[in-house]
Amino acid sequence: MADLISILNKNDIEKMVADVAQKISDDYKNSELVLIGVLKGAFVFMADLIRKITIPVKIDFVGISSYGSNTVSSGKINLTKNIEINIKNKDVLIVEDIVDTGLTLKYLINYLKSFDPKSVKICTLLDKYERRETQIEVAYPCHRIEKGFIVGYGIDFAEDYRNLPAIYHLKQM
Ligand code: IMP
Ligand code: MG
Questions:
Q1: What is the largest CA-CA distance in the chain?
Q2: Which of 32, 36, 37, 121 has the most CB atoms less than 10 A away?
Q3: Residue 42 falls inside a structural domain
C-alpha cells in the first residue's frame, strides 16, 4: 500500500510554470533556443512550459532511464533516445522533472556538449537537493525540496501515477 500526500496543487504548478516561462522568455529573447525534455518524466512539464514561453523555440527530447522500478537511483544511466535536431551553436535548455543526485544531468550535459551547442543550461520542475552527489548548476529550478519520493504531473513510480494532475509525496507503507 502507498499513501499520497499532496505537495503542489494544480494552481501552484500553473504559477510556477508561468513564472519560469517568463524568466526564460526574457533571458533568451535574442537567441536560438532549443528546449530538450528528458523522457519520460518531463513530458507534462515540457508541454505546459512551451505554451507559456513567448519567444520562438524549438523542442526535442532525449530518453534516459536510471531508476528501473525502484525508488532509489540505480546510478546506472542508459540513453534510450538520442536528440534528432541540430543543436550546434544553439542555446540549449534541458527540461527535467527532478534533479536528485545530479548524475543523470551530468551525463546528459556531457552528451549534449558533444554536439557543440552555444550553451547548455538546466530547467527543472523539482530540485531535490539532499542526495546531490555531483555539483550541478541549475539555472531555473521551479521548486526546491529536501527529500522524499515524488509522483504525479508526469513523474512516476514504476510507471504508475504519471497521469495525476498534481504533485505528491509517495509514502510507502
Ligand atoms: P538523478 O540522476 O539522481 O539526479 O536522478 C534524476 C532522475 O531520477 C530524474 O530524471 C527522475 O526521473 C528520477 N527521480 C529522481 N527523484 C525522483 C522521485 O522522487 N520520483 C520519481 N522519479 C525520480
Ligand atoms: Mg527523469
A1: 50
A2: 37
A3: yes
